[in-house]
């Protein structure tokens, strides 16, 4: 797997990352089972064997259990820590936390951000995160307060670098204006199915075309040197099989299958190759829970799609030719 430097850092990340959201499937208070531990370890080992070194977490995934499963694996193999880029996210709170009746909400208060990181470090059984992302923009977030939290976390050695997730260009600019150090990543939903951030650039100057609030996000990330990470890059499997695809998605799934057959790889590898071909240097965060599917998808790193293949997939997905 090829690696590239994450701008503004000394980190070299694999072009494809592994998303740990479903390391534990149960988002409840149950204890992880021995089978869940074995399955999680197999997934982590498969990712490492394929050259993946960046693992994406969040404090909320499976109510902390996904981080716990990863931490249990790491505790049994502590010498692996130096070769890993561990990333977690914070800023979302569940309903009924801390009181019964509390609504699900976002919380960028300094107190919550610091407590969240400390929880992640405990569960992951590590002293530091390489990257911390703000999970979703908090309308009540105050950039000066976030900056203080980032400073404290950096000064105490708990977090090396900071980024955001699901942030638009203007939100990145506002936050960055208050920070002493550069934001280094923005994790957003991008896939051949959810291709709006890419399509926006195509329709930007087209009369009558809708232009959304997220306009310019990819360009802003490129301009500032932020790593763009794509969550749900496989679109949850919805474009993988023409036979079972929803009728509206069948033409796209057929286009994916045709390109996959020509390259002799899986549909998932082509979905990743489509993202990797974009010049923003998009890093897919793959979340399959099947080691065989993960291994096959990583073949996408070795495929350089030509313009014709790339546009064939794009026009199928956008439902028509480019203007
Ligand atoms: N920042 C955010 O707001 C945000 C939001 C969501 C996710 N994320 C991150 O992104 C990562 C990936 O997200 P994701 O899991 O939604 O994305 P994904 O990698 O696009 O999808 C994985 C899901 O698709 C299924 N799938 C893939 N290929 C399939 C096929 N051929 N047939 C049937 N099912 C197939 C997988 O099932 P199997 O497990 O059976 O393979 C799995 O449930 C997460 O782990 C998390 O780290 C971030």
- Strand sequence of the main sheet, in spatial order? 3-4-5-8-9-10-11-12
Question: Which strand-content bin applies to the residues?
Answer: 15-25%
Give the uncertain stretches in residue-range form: none
- Provide the succession of SSEs: EEEHEHEEEHEHEHEHHEHHEHH
Instruction: Please bin the fraction of helical residues.
Output: 25-40%
Structure report:
The protein has 323 residues and is α/β, with parallel strands linked by helices. 38% of the residues lie in helices and 15% in strands. The chain contains 11 helices and 12 strands. It has helices spanning 34-49, 65-76, 110-124, 143-155, 169-176, 196-203, 217-224, 250-263, 267-276, 291-297, 307-318, and strands at residues 3-5, 12-14, 17-19, 54-56, 85-90, 92-93, 105-106, 129-134, 159-165, 185-189, 227-231, 283-286. The strands form 3 sheets. Strands 3-4-5-8-9-10-11-12 form an 8-stranded parallel beta barrel, surrounded by 4 helices. A two-stranded antiparallel ribbon has the order 1-2. The chain has a two-stranded antiparallel sheet with strand order 6-7. Helix 1 packs parallel to helix 10 and helix 8 packs across helix 9 (267-276). The longest helix has 16 residues, at 34-49. The chain is globular, with a radius of gyration of 20 Å. 42% of the residues are buried. It binds NADP nicotinamide-adenine-dinucleotide phosphate. NADP nicotinamide-adenine-dinucleotide phosphate binds at residues 19-22, 56, 165-166, 187, 231-237, 240, 268, 285-290, 293. Residues 19-22, 56, 165-166, 187, 231-237, 240, 268, 285-290, 293 line the site of NADP nicotinamide-adenine-dinucleotide phosphate (NAP).
